[in-house]
């Protein structure tokens, strides 16, 4: 039952994330305007993480972990009720209505990516050469290859393959994959360290994340847009990934059984700044040069890489953290837990720094302004309805 409920929750999130991104991309013009919108979106995510960590600790300590899930139900119902009144309406064209929905592509993409994630998650426990490990990943890869063939032949593809010729989008997808692999696993690693090595309770562990997320919010709102406008996406993404990884490495050095929270603060600060810069910058790069009618597909590719990266990173970093721990017997000593978590955090940080090098494959932004003369002054654009955006499929 829990697995089914979790699958339904994931299905809803899979619909929501790319739709939100596509809405941002179509409502805000490419450049500073969209960068500011993505910075606010990223800051809201960081704020939600801080609130969720704190509220989750309070609810778990007071009434149990079940309430962490239950409290989301009225919030989700309220958001669904007010969404039609506050969100811009979709604008579907006659071509969109004729095209239909690519059911075979959707099934192949879902099954293929799910099996790849299953193999990555199951590999450390079942063995990388097992059916659940390499077997699942191999079948998933075959299904994704078939998906590419189907998308090439269908008249209404779920993901137009021409999007993969967009260097900014492909590079952003790879950076998102690496960033989320480091970030998704490291949150779990840090929480386990706080509770397993420092004996924090659920509330204390939640409070420990508040400085990290507040700093990330500030960096997203105040630094990301400024750096994108000043340096462009290449230098901004590299700087963000470098700071993100450096903060994780600095934190790993401080992770011991006798560490105080103050010992951890420098790493948390650098980590938060890096994440706050990187998050909006990589999604801004993913939307660069994408036509409005394909914003939904591009956003889906970006968020899919985010989810796959998070699942893969969690599995791999947990495997690193537990490599030196006994499979059975008494609970491992706190020092062994701390050492394993520190090593995993270091690996995640190093991966983030190396992933930042991918930013240099982006095209350099053009610095020359367009020339305007009396004969080629662009005509003013027609007014548009701000509450109407293209369909974000």
Automatic annotation (TrEMBL):
Extract the InterPro entries matched here. Answer: MFS, MFS_dom, MFS_trans_sf
Entry keyword annotation includes Lyase: no
Molecular function terms from GO: transmembrane transporter activity
Q: What GO CC annotations are associated with the protein?
A: plasma membrane
Q: Which residues form the Major facilitator superfamily (MFS) profile domain?
A: 1-367
Q: What is its main location?
A: membrane
Q: Which residues cross the membrane?
A: 67-87, 99-121, 133-150, 170-190, 202-223, 235-256, 268-287, 308-325, 345-362
User: Where is the region Disordered?
Assistant: 365-393
Instruction: Write down the Pfam families for this protein, in alphabetical order.
Output: MFS_1 (PF07690)
Q: Where is the protein situated, by its record's location annotation?
A: Cell membrane
Keywords associated with the record? Antibiotic resistance, Cell membrane, Membrane, Transmembrane, Transmembrane helix, Transport
What is the topology of this protein in the membrane according to its UniProt annotation?
Multi-pass membrane protein
State the Gene Ontology BP annotations. response to antibiotic
Check the record and name the PROSITE patterns matching this protein: MFS (PS50850)
From the Swiss-Prot or TrEMBL record, give the protein name. MFS transporter
């Amino acid at each position: 039952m829990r697995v089914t409920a979790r699958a339904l929750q994931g299905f809803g999130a899979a619909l929501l994330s790319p739709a939100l991104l596509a809405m941002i991309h179509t409502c805000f013009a490419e450049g500073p305007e969209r960068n500011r919108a993505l910075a606010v979106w990223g800051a809201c995510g960081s704020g939600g993480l801080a609130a969720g960590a704190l509220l989750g600790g309070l609810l778990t300590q007071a009434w149990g972990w079940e309430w962490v899930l239950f409290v989301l139900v009225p919030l989700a119902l309220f958001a669904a009720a007010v969404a039609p009144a506050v969100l811009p309406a979709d604008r579907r064209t006659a071509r969109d209505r004729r095209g239909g929905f690519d059911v075979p592509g959707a099934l192949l993409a879902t099954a293929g990516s799910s099996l790849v994630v299953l193999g990555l998650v199951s590999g450390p426990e079942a063995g990388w050469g097992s059916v659940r490990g390499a077997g699942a990943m191999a079948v998933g890869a075959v299904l994704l290859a078939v998906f590419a063939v189907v998308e090439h032949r269908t008249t209404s593809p779920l993901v137009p393959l021409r999007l993969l010729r967009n260097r900014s989008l492909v590079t952003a997808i790879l950076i998102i994959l690496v960033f989320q692999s480091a970030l998704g696993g490291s949150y779990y690693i840090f929480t386990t360290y706080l509770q397993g090595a420092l004996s924090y309770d659920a509330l204390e562990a939640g409070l420990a994340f508040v400085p990290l997320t507040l700093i990330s919010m500030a960096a997203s709102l105040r630094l990301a847009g400024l750096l994108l406008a000043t340096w462009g996406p290449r230098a901004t993404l590299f700087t963000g990934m470098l700071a993100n990884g450096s903060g994780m490495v600095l934190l790993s050095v401080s992770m011991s059984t006798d560490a105080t929270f103050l010992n951890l603060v420098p790493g948390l600060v650098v980590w938060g700044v890096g994440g706050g810069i990187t998050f909006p910058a990589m999604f801004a790069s993913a939307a660069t040069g994408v036509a409005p009618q394909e914003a939904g597909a591009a956003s889906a590719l970006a968020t899919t890489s985010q989810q796959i990266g998070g699942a893969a990173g969690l599995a791999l970093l947990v495997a690193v953290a537990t490599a030196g721990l006994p499979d059975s017997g008494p609970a491992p000593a706190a020092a062994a837990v701390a050492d394993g978590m520190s090593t995993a955090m270091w690996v995640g940080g190093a991966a983030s720094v190396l992933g930042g090098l991918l930013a240099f494959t982006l095209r350099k932004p053009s610095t020359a302004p367009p020339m305007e003369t009396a004969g080629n002054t662009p005509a003013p654009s027609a007014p548009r309805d701000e509450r109407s955006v293209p369909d974000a499929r």
